[in-house]
Design goal:
Radius of gyration: 19 Å
Number of strands: 9
Bound molecules: adenosine monophosphate
Oligomer: single chain
Length: 291
Amino acid sequence: MKTFRDVASIRREVERHRRTGHTIGLVPTMGALHEGHLSLVRAARSGHDLVAVSIFVNPLQFGPDEDFTAYPRDESEDFERLGGAGTDIVFIPAVEDMYEAGRSTTVSVGPLAAKFEGAHRPGHFDGVCTIVAKLFNIVRPHGAFFGQKDAQQAAVLKRMVRDLDFDIEIFVCPTMREPDGLALSSRNAYLSDDDRQRATVLYRALVAGRASLLEDGDAAGAESTMNRVFAEAGVAPDYAAACDPDTFEAPSPARSVLLVVAARVGPARLIDNMLISSEELKGVTVRAAGG
Ligand code: AMP
């Protein structure tokens, strides 16, 4: 496994591989790696000759009151895990290397990026899109791997790739979970034992919302069910909603439905989601919230 810390040297390395016809799979991360990240590395490994992982805690995607400084960082542990999962290249630039003084261009995806996470974290997706566009231009991968865990991020990035004609295939991989359903997240490290117990409320709300939607197709009913599960746990969600998995607008009949939740549990702001496919919803008429 080779490590690169500056843009010029990783560019040289990936160009060398491109010239020999190797395909490149990129897994962008912020480090503090867990099995969710490693599942993306393995997915990239299975379809590409060269697997590159970036580790960069991107200041642009954190709000002023968010956890940029506190975000967990453990380089040597990350390297060990990446080596074990079959990574070829790690790109771990410094902030000054990625954002030179005087930078002023931002990639902004519009309405899709303004809903849910975008509404609660103003500027977040601009930061995500800007760094991912830069990583795409630096690493020039053939495929890029993202987690369904951050479903809106994946949808926003797919939109960006289509709109800006990046010649890159986006792969979205399943959410890895703890045995009790909690989605793996670097931010789970912030949870005390008590908070860790309460954090299962996100998954429990999704499971209950799913059952409710499959029962009668009523999106508003599914949202009420999820909100009830949160209330019973004494956790106030930022949102608990049913939406279209591509547009994040109200769900449409005969299409898949995405349930999305976000909540602060102790010091950690956690998000999760659950996709209910159109096949599973066959025979159920989905009615949008308020419809
Ligand atoms: P992060 O380091 O949190 O920016 O995440 C890097 C990538 O890993 C993103 O594409 C995430 O969606 C993905 N990821 C994070 N948690 C999980 C998980 N539990 N299962 C699968 N992928 C995940």
